[in-house]
Amino acid sequence: MKIFYFKLNRHTISVLLGLVCATPLFAQTGKTVTGTVKDHNHLLSGVVVTEEGTQNSVRTDENGYYSLTLQHDDAKLIFEQLDFPIREEEVLNRSVINVSFTKEDDEIQLKDVVINAGYYAVKDKERTGSIARVTAKEIENQPVNSVLDALQGRVPGLEITPTSGNSGSGYKVRIRGQNSIAAGNDPLYIIDGVPFSTTSLGSTALGGVILPGGNSNPLNTMDPQSIESIEVLKDADATAIYGSRGANGVLLITTKKGKTGKTAFTADASTTIITHGIFPTLLNTNQYLEMRREAFANDKITTYPTNAFDVNGTWDQNRFTDWQKEFIGKATTANTLRFSVSGGTEQTSFILGNTLVKENAVYQGDFKYTKLGFFSTLNHQSIDHKFNLRLSVQYSLDRNFLPTTDLTRSAITLAPNAPSLYNDDGSLNWANNSWSNPIAALRSTYRNETTNLNTNAVISYQLLNGVTIKTNLGYQRTDFDEFQSNPNTMRNPAFGSTSAASNILKSENYQNGWIIEPQIDFNYKLGKGKVSATAGATLTEQEKEQNSLLASGFASNHLMNNIRSATTISYLKETSSQYRYAALYARINYQYKDRYILNLTGRRDGSSRFGPNHRFANFGAVGAAWIFSKENFLRDVSWLSFGKLRGSYGVTGNDQIGDYQFQDTFTIAQGGYDNLLVLYPTRLQNPNYSWEKNKKLEVALEVGLIHNRLDMEIAYYRNRSSNQLISYKLPTTTGFTSIISNLGAVVQNSGMEITFSAIPIQHGLVKWTTSTQLSLPQNKLKSFEGLDKTPYINDYVIGESLYIRKLYDYQGIDSTTGLFQFKDYNQDGQITSIEDRKVSVDLSPQFIGSWQNSLVYKQWTMDFLFQFVKKKGYNEFYSFGTPGMMSNFPVAVLDRWQKPGDKDKKFQRYTTGVDSKALQAYNNFLSSTGVIEDASYIRLKTIAISYRLPIKELNGLIYIQGQNLWTLTKMKGVDPETERTFLPTTKRIVIGGKIEF
Question: Residue 267: how many CA atoms within 13 Å on its side-chain side?
Answer without folding.
Answer: 4
